[in-house]
Each structure stands twice: as C-alpha cells, then as structure tokens.
Amino acid sequence: AYDWRGLAYNELGDYQQALADYDKAIKLEPDDILLYNNRAFIYDNLGHYDQAIADFKKALELNPDFALGYANLGLAYLGLWDFKNAEKHCQKSLQLDEQSCAAHYCLGSVYKEIGGQDNYIRAIEHYKKVIEFVCDYFDNVHIANTYVNMGMTKALSHYPLEEILADYKKAIELDPQHTYVYFLLGEQSDGEEAIGYYSKAITLAPDYSVPYLKRGLIYKQQGKIQ
C-alpha cells in the first residue's frame, strides 16, 4: 500500500510525500528490489542523482540479474553527465535483455551527447530500437521523448528536414503537451508558422523564456516592433 501510494504521489508531483511512503515501505520490506528501484525514480525526478544511484545499486546488490536496474542506473549517471558509467551500465542491461527500451534510450542519449557523426548514427539506431520494442514501462510520454531526441540527433547529423519534422510531429501526436517539441518545430520554421509554434510553447510553459525571445526576433523582422 505504501508502494502504490508512493507511485500515486509521484504521478502528482508530490515527491516529498512519495519519498516518505517509500521510506516506510523499505523499512517494512528491506529486501524488495522494486521499492529501491521506485524510490530511486523519485530521487531522479528531484535531481538527486547520487541518492538515486545509491538506491539503484542497492537493488542490483539484491538481484545482480535485474536488467532494468542496470539501465536505470545508467540513466542516473547520464543525469550527472557521467557518460562512461552510463554507457557501461546500459550495455550491461542489454547483455541481460537485448530488448531493454530503457537501455537503448540511455545509450542513444549517451551517443547523442558525446557527439560526432559515428555517434549520431549509433544514437539514432538505439532510438529506433526503443520505438521497435514495445516495453510496458515506456508510455507515450517516454516514446514522445524518444522521437524528440531522435529528431534532434538527425538535425545534428544533417538529415533531410522532412525526416526531422516527421519525428517532431510524431512526438506531438503521442504527447500534445510536450512544450519543447513546439519550440523545436519553431526553430525549423519561418514567419507565421514559427510564431504559431513558439506561441504554443509559451501557452504550455509561460515561464519558459527562450520562445519569447525567438518570437520577438521574428516580430522584429516583420517590423512589428510593439
């Protein structure tokens, strides 16, 4: 019950209440790997990557064959921009489960951030694997993020514009509230179309400053100074 209530608090963004429930659950069941795994996600959401890493490692200590745990640990290292450890643990996850969506997403992000044409190609292949394998724990928001990252990688790799836009638009189909993809579409557009995308990003996230700047620059080009 504490576990499930903790998940509910997490979905509501009430991370402190979620942590309190997981702390209680772990006291009751100190050998339950999923409790450590789930509490680590809360720390991850809070940006407390060191604590998330400690919990993921505890889960793996309890079950060294926990494929998803290695991928989650890799993603936590990715949050710290520790690409070496992120790659190592996500590769370990794939050794145990070659269809691990989390591991493929992690490796795609590692290679995207490291950069270079060869790494961009590797990143795109891993993102394609995420989309190919239907993983229960990857909902539409996760898949939308995959399309966004794949589109960004294609842009860095100078793919045709229509392929990049197709990925961004697929992300919107899956997650119409994805603020950043509207910004990215604005970056790939001109004039009134770009203004429309930047305005949508502003509507979804009024405190996100960059779309205001970008929209303002277009208005300036149009002579709409006010």
Give a structural overview:
The chain is built from 13 helices and no strands. The protein has 226 residues and is mostly helical. Helix 9 (140-156) runs antiparallel to helix 10.
Can you summarize this structure?
With 226 residues, this protein is an all-alpha fold. It is built from 13 helices and no strands.
Question: Uncertain spans, ≥5 residues at pLDDT below 50?
Answer: none
Order of helices and strands: HHHHHHHHHHHHH
Distance between the termini: 56 Å
Proportion of helical residues: over 70%
Shape: globular
The total strand number stands at 0
Radius of gyration: 20 Å
Overall mean pLDDT:
95
Tell me the structural class: mainly alpha
Q: What proportion of the residues form beta strands (DSSP E)? A: under 5%
Q: Would you spell out the secondary-structure blueprint of this structure?
A:
Blueprint: H1 2-11, H2 15-28, H3 33-46, H4 49-62, H5 67-79, H6 83-96, H7 101-114, H8 117-132, H9 140-156, H10 161-174, H11 179-187, H12 191-204, H13 209-221
